Amino acid sequence: MSALPAAILFDFDGTLIDSAPDILTGINLLLDEENLPKLDLAQVHQFIGDGAPMLVTRTFAAVGRPLDPDSVPAMTDRYMAIYESLPADPGCVFPGVAGTLASLRESIPLALVTNKPERATHAVLRAIGLDGLFTAVVGGDTLPTRKPHPGPLLHAMAQLGAAPARTVMVGDGANDVTAGRAAGCRVVCVTYGYPRMPVEELGADRLVDHFHDLPAALADLALQ
Ligand SMILES: O=C(O)COP(=O)(O)O
Ligand SMILES: [Mg+2]
């Protein structure tokens, strides 16, 4: 990449926000309704990143009552109703995120590409004061495909008018890297998220330990 990116696409859970505690609260309320035992935070970290239906599927398998595939959509709807009824913790934004995004946005259009369902994504963005920063927001149910499919990234780039070769995807897990590569983007991963495998093995172009290191990583990519 010979210049600063034409656009930056961001993952949400594990990259911009430490959403696992709020997700755990919602999942445990659902399990309580079903008279099932609670999950702990370490389990939820392992279950986030592939969208709400997969979160619910993994949860019920973990507590010993695997769901019939036909019952996953209704159970997911119930989970999302609970999750959306809970106020998102404004303190869940990772350090450095708000200031860095505000500064990047002055010169580069930003988009959010998450596997979290779109309506809940907008609600959380409002609750944490990050709404208005993103020119495009693509959720896990916005399109028929979700990450690791490149479709949501291509959709966001089309909305931003940005060429993939000049766009950077910033995420925390394998889905972000796979989707970013398939879409033709460069990829930066944060090392503090919910990766489910060693971050060094994700295959990102750059790793950042802290969100405020992102502009330097972008500048470093631009020198290549
Ligand atoms: O799995 C989810 O619901 C969201 O995960 P993501 O924001 O990391 O894509
Ligand atoms: Mg993530």
UniProtKB/TrEMBL annotation:
Class in the EC hierarchy, top level: hydrolase
InterPro entries: HAD-like_hydrolase_sf (IPR050155), HAD-like_sf (IPR036412), HAD-SF_hydro_IA (IPR006439), HAD_sf (IPR023214), PGP-like_dom2 (IPR023198), PGPase_prok (IPR037512)
UniProt family annotation: Belongs to the HAD-like hydrolase superfamily. CbbY/CbbZ/Gph/YieH family.
Keyword Magnesium set for record: yes
BP-aspect Gene Ontology terms: carbohydrate metabolic process; DNA repair; glycolate biosynthetic process
Name this protein carries in UniProt: Phosphoglycolate phosphatase
Protein residues bound to Mg(2+): D11, D13, D172
Function: Specifically catalyzes the dephosphorylation of 2-phosphoglycolate. Is involved in the dissimilation of the intracellular 2-phosphoglycolate formed during the DNA repair of 3'-phosphoglycolate ends, a major class of DNA lesions induced by oxidative stress.
One CC-aspect GO term: cytosol
GO MF, any single term: phosphoglycolate phosphatase activity
Catalytically driven reaction(s): 2-phosphoglycolate + H2O = glycolate + phosphate
EC number of the protein: 3.1.3.18
Entry keyword set: Carbohydrate metabolism, Hydrolase, Magnesium, Metal-binding
Metal-binding in keyword set: yes
Pathway(s): Organic acid metabolism; glycolate biosynthesis; glycolate from 2-phosphoglycolate: step 1/1
Swiss-Prot/TrEMBL cofactor(s): Mg(2+)
Active site, UniProt feature: D11
